[in-house]
Write a structure and sequence with these properties.
Length: 602
C-alpha cells in the first residue's frame, strides 16, 4: 500500500507563520522506519487549493490511504484534507489523529467523515494499522483506534503510552520541507531560524483547562537521544533559536543540571538561544542561575490567575505568592518571561477578574498577557460545559473552532464586558514601540519596522493583523526580547486605505458576514461607515437587523443590486463562501477574504 501523510493548511498564504506540526512528522517517520511506502505533503507550502493538491498527490503516487491530523482547533483544515481525499473517489482510506480525535473520538469522527481515527500517540498505532490493512486483519485487534464498520463507529482497546521515547524515530523533517519552512519563518520573525523540539511528553498535573493528547503519564526522553537529534539539526538547518515545547520542563533537578551543562556546550559552539516551560513552584535562585548560565533566554510559566480562589479551582496547586517569587527571580536573572492570565474559570467572578488585573497593573515589568480561558474538548472545563448545557452541540462546537463560552460565575453581561475590560487595562498600561514604519505588504502580513523604546534597536517583522481577529498584537523586539504593544494605527491604516480603494474601484460593495469581525471593522474604519455598503448574511436571524445604520440582507440580493465586490468577514467559512459567490453570482468581479485585506492596501 501507498500512504500519503498530509500536514493540513494552517495558514492563509504560503510564507505566513505557522507552527510546524511535530506530531504528523513523527507519524511519517515511524511509518518510513517500518518500511512502508510513504509520501508526504505540506499544504502550507503551496498556494493551490487543498482539493487540487491532495488529488494531485493521490493520482501521482497511487495513494491507498491518506493520513492527517491536528488539535481540536484544527478541525476545519483537517476536514478539508479528508473531504479532498474522499472527492477523489475509489477506495482511498482516510485516517485522522491528534488531540482532535483523541479528546472526542466519536464526535470528531462523525463530523470529519474519516474512515479511521487514531486515539492517543500515533507512532506505534499507525504502524500496526498499516500491517492490519495490508494483511486484511481485523481492525478490532489494533489498540488505539476508532473505525467505521457496518455504518457504526467502534473504539478498540486503549493504547498504552510509549514509555521509551528513544525507541521512536526523530520527526520526518525533510518530508515536510523543513528547510523551506525555516527560510520562510525566519523572514517573518526578525531573522531567527526558530525550531520546536521535545524532551518529554505529557504532564503529571491535571489543570482543568488542559488536555494532554500524548496521554496522562509524564515521560522523559533520554538526554543522549535528545542531544543526538539536536546535534543533527543545528548545523543541518542552521538553527538559531530552540523552543523546548514540553508541557513541563525541569521536574527533575539533577536531570536539569545535566541538560543545562550539555546545552551550554551547544550555546557556546553555535550561538543559539533557547527557552522552556516551568512551574512557578519549582523555581529557586539556584535554578535561575543554572538556566541563565546555559543560555536560556526565556521561560514560559503557567500562571493563569492572581487570585488564589481561582488558582485552586483550576487545580493549579500553586499560589499567588509562588507566582510572585518565581517571576521576581526570573526577572532579576535577566531572563524574559512569557505568561498568561486567562480569565473565565468556573470560580471566576467580576471581583476575581479585578484582583488579577490589579496585580497585573502593579507588575507590568513581567509583561504578562491578558486573554480568555478557552474550553477545549477533553478538559474538565469542557465536560462541565457539556453537563451544564453551556455547550449544547458538541460537533457544532468543534466546527466553530471551539469559540469562547462562559463557564464562570460572571453574569452574561459581565462576561460580555470582559473583553472590553481587558482592552481597557491594556490601553491604559501599554508599552508601544518608539516608532512603527510601514514598509509594505508580504503575503497576508504587513512588513513593518519597529524601533524599540527600551533598547532603541530596529527590528523588521511581518505582522498579521487579519488572520483571526482585530485583537491587539504584542511583537517582541529581537534585540532585547521585550514585548511591545503594537498600536491599533497599523490595523486602522490598512483597513482604511484598503476599503477606500475598494470604494474607488467598484460601484457597489458588499460585506458578507455580520458577526464580531464586521462590527469591529465598522468601528475602526470610517470608509465603511460613510459609504453605501450592502451587508449580507445567510442567517435568517440576522437578516433585517442593522449594523451601523446598514440593514442586513440575504445574499440573494447580489444580482438584483449588481454588487460587483464582496468582502468576506467570516474567517472560518471564508473558503466556502468564496466558492459560493464564484459559482452563484458572476456579477461579483472581486472577492476579498478578510484575511487578505492587506493585499489591497494602497
Amino acid at each position: 500500500m501507498n500512504y500519503l501523510v498530509v500536514m493540513p493548511r494552517f495558514i492563509n498564504k504560503p510564507g505566513d507563520f505557522y507552527y510546524f506540526a511535530l506530531g504528523i512528522a513523527y507519524v511519517s517517520a515511524s511509518l518510513k522506519k517500518a518500511g512502508k511506502r510513504v509520501f508526504t505533503l505540506n499544504l502550507n507550502h503551496t498556494a493551490d487549493p487543498v482539493s487540487v493538491s491532495v488529488r494531485h498527490a493521490i493520482d501521482e503516487h497511487g495513494i491507498d490511504a491518506v493520513l492527517t491530523g491536528g488539535l481540536s482547533g484544527n478541525y476545519t483544515p483537517v476536514k478539508q484534507v479528508v473531504t479532498a481525499a474522499k472527492e477523489v473517489g475509489g477506495k482511498v482510506l482516510t485516517v485522522v489523529g491528534g488531540g482532535l480525535v483523541s479528546s472526542e473520538p466519536l464526535v470528531a469522527m462523525e463530523g470529519l467523515g474519516a474512515d479511521i481515527g487514531v486515539i492517543g500517540e500515533g507512532e506505534i498505532t499507525v504502524c500496526e494499522l498499516a500491517e492490519a490493512l495490508e494483511k486484511g486483519s481485523d481492525l478490532a485487534d489494533v489498540a488505539g483506534l476508532v473505525y467505521r464498520n457496518d455504518g457504526r463507529l467502534h473504539i478498540t482497546a486503549a493504547r498504552k503510552e510509549i514509555f521509551d521515547l528513544a525507541s521512536i524515530p526523530w520527526p520526518d523533517y525533510e518530508g515536510f520541507g523543513f528547510s523551506a519552512y525555516l527560510d520562510a519563518m525566519s523572514r517573518g520573525s526578525g531573522g531567527q531560524r526558530y525550531v520546536q523540539t521535545i524532551a518529554s511528553r505529557s504532564c503529571p498535573f491535571d489543570c482543568t483547562f488542559c488536555y494532554h493528547p500524548a496521554g496522562k503519564h509524564y515521560r522523559q526522553r533520554s538526554l543522549d537521544d535528545f542531544f543526538e537529534e539536536l546535534d543533527f539539526m543545528l548545523p543541518r538547518f542552521r538553527i538559531q533559536y530552540l523552543n523546548i515545547s514540553d508541557e513541563l520542563f525541569a521536574l527533575d533537578r539533577e536531570r536539569t543540571r545535566e541538560f543545562c551543562a550539555r546545552m551550554k556546550e551547544r550555546v557556546d559552539k553555535f550561538g543559539i538561544k533557547w527557552d522552556a516551560q516551568l512551574r512557578v513552584d519549582h523555581v529557586d535562585k539556584d535554578l535561575m542561575d543554572l538556566l541563565k548560565s546555559s543560555g536560556c533566554s526565556l521561560i514560559s510559566y503557567g500562571i493563569e490567575s492572581a487570585d488564589n480562589t481561582v488558582l485552586k479551582s483550576m487545580r493549579k496547586h500553586i499560589t499567588v505568592e509562588q507566582i510572585e517569587n518565581a517571576l521576581k527571580l526570573t526577572y532579576e536573572a535577566g531572563i524574559q518571561i512569557q505568561g498568561n492570565f486567562i480569565f473565565g474559570d468556573i470560580e471566576e467572578t467580576w471581583e476575581t477578574v479585578h484582583n488579577t488585573l490589579e496585580w497585573w497593573q502593579k507588575h507590568l515589568e513581567y509583561e504578562v498577557n491578558l486573554t480568555h480561558i478557552k474550553v477545549f474538548p477533553g478538559t474538565h472545563l469542557y465536560k462541565h460545559a457539556c453537563e451544564k448545557g453551556i455547550i449544547k452541540d458538541r460537533l457544532k462546537y468543534l466546527e466553530d473552532g471551539c469559540p469562547l463560552v462562559n463557564v464562570s460565575k460572571m453574569s452574561a453581561s459581565e462576561y460580555s464586558a470582559l473583553d472590553g475590560e481587558l482592552q481597557r487595562y491594556f490601553k491604559a498600561n501599554s508599552s508601544p514601540p518608539e516608532s512603527v514604519e510601514m514598509l509594505g505588504i508580504k503575503g497576508s502580513g504587513c512588513h513593518i519596522a519597529l524601533t524599540c523604546k527600551h533598547c532603541k534597536g530596529r527590528t523588521e517583522q511581518i505582522y498579521y493583523p487579519f488572520l483571526h481577529s482585530l485583537s491587539r498584537a504584542r511583537p517582541v523586539c529581537t534585540h532585547c526580547r521585550q514585548r511591545l504593544d503594537l498600536d491599533d494605527a497599523v490595523i486602522d491604516a490598512v483597513l482604511e486605505s484598503g476599503f477606500a480603494k475598494l470604494f474607488r474601484e467598484h460601484k457597489k460593495v458588499g460585506v458578507w458576514g455580520c458577526g464580531d469581525i464586521a462590527g469591529m471593522a465598522f468601528e475602526k474604519c470610517a470608509s465603511l461607515r460613510r459609504n453605501k455598503i450592502y451587508l449580507l448574511d445567510k442567517s435568517a436571524q440576522k437578516q433585517g437587523t442593522s449594523l451601523w445604520g446598514h440593514t442586513v440582507s440575504p445574499p440573494s440580493i447580489i444580482p438584483d443590486e449588481n454588487i460587483d465586490a464582496v468582502i468576506i468577514t467570516s474567517i472560518r467559512y471564508a473558503d466556502e463562501i468564496s466558492d459560493e459567490i464564484a459559482s452563484k453570482y458572476p456579477c461579483v468581479k472581486k472577492i476579498i477574504k478578510f484575511t487578505d485585506m492587506t493585499t489591497i492596501y494602497n
